[in-house]
Design brief:
This protein has helices spanning 73-77, 170-175; strands at 6-16, 21-26, 37-41, 49-59, 62-67, 83-87, 105-109, 115-125, 132-137, 142-146, 152-156, 161-164. By secondary structure, the chain is mainly beta.
Length: 176
């Protein structure tokens, strides 16, 4: 799955203490423990730079992270607001990172042994542990789709296509 690609996973918050530790604020479900290497990209953009994680622990919905070469509070403060990127391999193999989903074309069965394009995924979020896709239909309607295994027939992030079987009545709520 998407080997070698980097996906946004959070951002660096404030420094934690005086020994160079950082607060990593996740935007997605982060794997715990963190991978041995993470990538940071300045908030203004630019090329992501790899950092070796020497220590990490979860703390009140965030991670406290120590990075090789970041030895004191001043060095940690220079990384504040940097985007945190993780390689695809850091995420569970049965679920792609949410950041890989926007733009994917979504298809549904049309009842005539064929299928029709419903729209494209605009965003994916995981409030309260449930993944929700925001699909924008071809006529501009937003469809909030519960992305659970029983409703997803196939998902191919490399091809940029998903095939779904929404629960009865869901599409009628949004498209009528």
């Amino acid at each position: 799955m998407l080997s070698g690609q980097l996906f946004p996973a959070g951002r660096i918050g404030k420094a934690h203490g005086i020994r160079g530790e950082l607060v990593l604020v996740p935007d997605v479900d982060m794997p715990a423990p963190l991978p041995a290497e993470i990538f940071l990209r300045p908030a203004q953009g630019g090329t992501p730079r790899p950092y070796t994680v020497t220590q990490s622990r979860q703390h009140h919905g965030t991670f406290i992270v120590a990075l090789e070469g970041v030895e004191d509070r001043n060095a940690a403060e220079t990384l504040r607001s940097h985007a945190v990127l993780l390689p695809a391999e850091a995420f569970p193999s049965d679920e792609p990172p949410l950041a890989s989903l926007p733009g994917i074309r979504v298809f549904t069965p049309d009842g005539n042994s064929g299928e029709r394009e419903l729209g494209r995924i605009a965003s994916a979020e995981r409030p309260a542990g449930q993944t929700i896709w925001s699909i924008i239909s071809e006529d501009g309607n937003e469809i909030l789709f519960p992305a659970v295994q029983e409703f997803i027939l196939s998902l191919d992030t490399e091809k940029g296509e998903a095939r779904i079987a929404p629960p009865p009545g869901l599409l009628e709520l949004y498209l009528s």
